[in-house]
Amino acid sequence: MLIDHKSGFYGARHPCHVGVQVLQAVRAGAKAVLLNMIWPLDPNAFFPPPKKPYRKAINKEAKGVPILQITDIDEVAGDIRSGLQNGPVKVTLKAEAASNGFLRIFSEDQSTDIDSDGTPEYEQVGSFYDLPHVRGEYKTPPGFWTIHNTEVLGDRSYSSWYSHGVVALDLTDPSAPELVGQFVPPRASVWGVTVDPETGLIYVSDIGGGLWIVEPTGEAAAR
After folding, report:
1. Residues 22, 3: contact at Cβ < 8 Å?
2. Helix (H/G/I), strand (E/B), else coil: 109
3. Where do runs of H (alpha helix) occur along the chain?
4. Do residues 187 and 109 share a domain?
5. What single DSSP character describes residue 84?
6. Domain termination site, one of 27, 60, 86
7. Which of 86, 112, 144 is the last residue of a domain?
8. Of 12, 17, 91, 93, which is most buried with the most CB atoms under 10 A?
9. pLDDT at 88 exceeding the cut of 70
10. Which range marks the domain in which residue 183 is found?
11. Which residues are 210's β-sheet partners?
12. Count of domains in the chain?
């Protein structure tokens, strides 16, 4: 079954929320549910309040039924809508494991006007995601495994990475960042870091633990 809508706020205001539609589809015998969603991360778009009863019902009644949220499939969705006029439509999808946010490094000296809009886009020269649960896992343990913000001092970067705490990288070779240190407070939920360039101290904002002041040592210290 295709659940198709165009507005990112559709689920929050529509009397038949997306989560309710999924439940109805499963109860009607749907073998799979394909969601054409503009903003799949909006929690209000999937379940109306109160959310708990719908989640319980779907967990119970939709067990084993593939439910896919997909963005940027306008052309595919258009083909499905057209094809449904002549009967059932078979959709074959190749699923890839989702990725949480990670560090990308761009060069200001290397840029190309890719879309010919007169504004050059910087070229990506490196990235770092070599931490548990950041990429390549369909199901991750409880926690938030995405990067939030990054500060650079000398040839070191310090990133707030929620459940991974503060991640220190050696950027001597920007094309191949190396992990050189990490600070993970208890029940970490680190969402902000700022670095004092004079002292090298890192001021860490932890949602659950408050403010931490960290002094990088050894390889983690800025050069």
Report:
1. yes
2. strand
3. 10-13, 18-27, 43-46, 51-61, 74-83
4. yes
5. G
6. 86
7. 86
8. 17
9. yes
10. 103-220
11. 206
12. 2
